[in-house]
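Please produce the structure of this protein holding NAP.
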Amino acid sequence: MPCSLGVIGLGRMAQAIIEPLLERKDYLPENILGVVGHESSLEKLSSCLPKALRVVAANDHEAEEVWKAPIQILAVKPQQLALVQKKAQQVQTSLSVSKPLLVSLLAGVTLSHLKVAFPHHRCIRVVPNAASLVSDGLTGLAWSKDVSNPQRLAVKEIFQPISKVFELPEEQLDSFLALTSSGPAYIALIAEGLADGAVASGLPRALAYELTHRTLAGSAKLLKDKELHPGQLKDMVASPGGTTIAALRHLEKAGVRSALMEAVVVAAERSREMA
Ligand SMILES: NC(=O)c1ccc[n+]([C@@H]2O[C@H](COP(=O)([O-])OP(=O)(O)OC[C@H]3O[C@@H](n4cnc5c(N)ncnc54)[C@H](OP(=O)(O)O)[C@@H]3O)[C@@H](O)[C@H]2O)c1
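Below is the modeled complex.
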């Protein structure tokens, strides 16, 4: 039976996307075909995916079938694109599927690049974020004009169970990526610094990490649930002559706010450069 969902690059991000689809029975495992780069990855994947879900290595002849699926998720690393594109072009000319949908997760690869690389497809550019792994992610979507309404709906149904979905003009996707896709790394760095500070001032390491995680999660919840401006939350916590305002003074002297602004700007520029 031909697959209804093809996944080219069944790595971390693609698994985060398909697991909820399987749990919700939106797709049956036997209707999904996954392709990976190396045969050595197959054994590891077989232990964490349903038996009925077929996964093959890129050099297996069965891998060609992935290009017959009406929806194909492209989730290889950007540097693997050239190889995948070559493979697609070899097989696509012999296929009769009319304009399948290519859902690309590749950072910095534009719709116009995708249209040239995959001329037989309709293309969607997707920016995922790692919190989709715990079904609390953010997804940015930009469509090429020829994507039909049913195709748009089908894609939103894939990403909505794991993330809040934002449809954006493509020119905003680099900034979206710089904040949301790279964001978990910024937060991880901040978390590590805070926990190290707590250890330096006397707390045990494990407790320092637990308190850091809870402080970050609680602060994010407070900002969101009470609809606070970040400045309001800061002012709420910083009492006159107190500990927090002393720490904030230090952070401002160290240029933390401006470093964070620059980090997002630089990541967006890098994404545009990669394109
Ligand atoms: N992770 C994130 O937070 C994040 C955020 C935003 C965007 N993205 C984008 O999502 C994409 C995937 O990222 P990831 O973190 O999931 O990467 P990953 O875990 O390294 O997965 C990449 C997958 O591609 C497979 N692959 C390699 N060469 C292939 C080929 N020729 N044909 C088919 N499959 C091939 C790999 O298989 P082998 O392991 O066997 O080589 C692996 O399963 C990237 O383009 C990235 O830019 C990721």
